[in-house]
Amino acid sequence: MSLGISAIEYINGIKNGTITAEEFVAKTIEHIKKVEPKLHAFISLNDNALEQARAIDKKVKAGQNVGAFYGMPISIKDNICIKGGKTTCASRMLENYTAPYDATVVSKLNAQDAVIIGKTNLDEFAMGVATEFSAFGPSKNPWDTEYVPGGSSGGSAVSVAGLESILSLGSDTGGSVRNPASFCSIVGLKPTYGLVSRYGLVSYANSIEQIGPMGRRVEDVALLLNHIAGKDPHDPTTIDNKNQDYLSGIDSGISGKKIGIIKEMSSGSGLDSTVASVFKNSISAFEKLGAKIEEVSLDMVEYTVATYYVLTTAEAGSNLSRYDNLRYGYDLDSEGYEFKSYISKARRNFGPEVTRRMILGGFVPSAGFAGKYLLKALKVKSKLKKQIEAAFSKCDFLISPTVPVLPFKFGEKIDDPLAMYLADINTVTANLTGVPAISVPYEVKNGLPVGIQIHANLLQEKQLLQAAYALQNTTKLPEVPL
Ligand code: GLN
Q: For residue 127, how far is its CA from the centre of ligand 1 (angstroms)?
């Protein structure tokens, strides 16, 4: 029994009796113990995982109703609440915070008999692209531990790529599911805004972020989406998806579909030459699958990174203001402080990136500057939306490299926030416009993974997963060198 099997293979194994949940979970825990000192995918582990697996095996044996995941180990980013467990957001600020309720996605996974194996590492409050901003130390890329795994859902991607879980949930505000998926050679989907409930996800920039499924195979991601999508009374932004089955017909192919190459994301000086050549190979593969390819220009893309950082810092400034040590925070003795100095002392427990964003977030919407920054950003966002709508009136899918650069070494970008922010140029458009986008692992060049990004129109996840599945089957990836 290999830990590298797909979610679908796991379920079949349980059904035909070749695997038990207990065996698989026990083997996973043993493997986690072995690789964690090197990879650091997790912030905390579930001490009851084995016991839960045993209870599920019992139900299988007794012929009782068993949920769709049959005890499958699934990891969860540590900005998603699990009742009674720590939810740290990889921040000193929430180091000892215990969530009083389950996120909707967690309730849904529990109802389907998943075993939540642990909470994964992230950049503090999901701000970053390398998991280097975790207050508890970075996660390492399993393909080469000198390289970052991407971020901010780096721990989730590492846990899946490093065979420490079959599936994972991350969150994607500007690429945080797709970027680490690309850097770690796994699949990551940012669903349409509103398709998956955000109830129980700690907000960073709630008007554009989504929880997204991650796995080693496209069909596994489709399966996970089946069980987390849909209307939730706790989140008024959610959409009724009529219980779509994203897995059925996933092998329908894309013959005759129109694919647009987004010019501004696939050319120019910021694009690494290795990434460019892998992207070219993926275009030939799409052509061989019978798709029609054309180039599409979205000239607003040039302004998206600036727009994204204006809008997200403004939202973060507001969302994170609750961490004032009065409502949420750590233990700080208030003796001898007046209000202002108390709050500013309390906030010193934020790391450097979160601090930078909160300062910016106070500035961009402030009187005298809002017109120059916030309102302008909102205008770019609506123009970009119009351009995407026009592109999807001509094309079924829009493609680009997921990230314009290869995974980089630790420390390479940490002191240069602008260089770091530019790594988001290909991913933020999906968040700013609400459309779904997926990263499909395509090649591993000189030991470093490269992913291809496919966007589809709003709520077209079924078609998007079919395209991703077709692309996946045109490539054979090497095994991760664990
Ligand atoms: N890199 C982006 C940021 O730092 C995206 C983060 C995310 O998607 N959560 O904001």
A: 5
What is the DSSP track for 375-432?
HHHHHHHHHHHHHHHHHHHH-SEEEEESSSS---BTTSSTT-HHHHHHTTTTTHHHHH
Per the CB < 8 A criterion, the answer to whether 234 and 197 are in contact is: yes
Q: Compute CA distances 303 → 71, 129, 235, 318, whole Å.
A: 45, 19, 30, 23
Is the beta carbon of 177 within 6 A of some atom in ligand 1?
A: no
Residue labelled with tokens 């694009």: 271
E strand or H helix at 41 = none
- Residue 276, SS3 per DSSP: helix
Q: Return the SS3 of 94.
A: helix
Alpha carbon of 457 to ligand 1 centroid (Å): 22
Of 7, 40, 9, 12, the closest CA to residue 138 belongs to 40
Tens-place pLDDT, residues 412-428: 999 898 889 999 999 99
Q: Please report the domains of the chain, with CATH numbers, ordered by start residue.
A: 7-250 (3.90.1300.10)
Question: Ligand 1: does its nearest atom lie under 6 Å from the Cβ of 176?
Answer: yes
C-alpha 314 chain-centroid distance: 21
Q: State the closest ligand 1 atom to the C-alpha of 421, by its place in the atom list counted from 1.
A: 1
**Encoding tokens for residue 159?**
């846990």
C-beta 428 within 6 A of ligand 1: no
The bridge status of strand 437-445 relative to strand 187-190 is antiparallel
Binding site membership of 150 for ligand 1 (Cβ less than 6 Å): no
pTM of the model: 0.98
Q: So what's the pLDDT on residue 111? A: 98
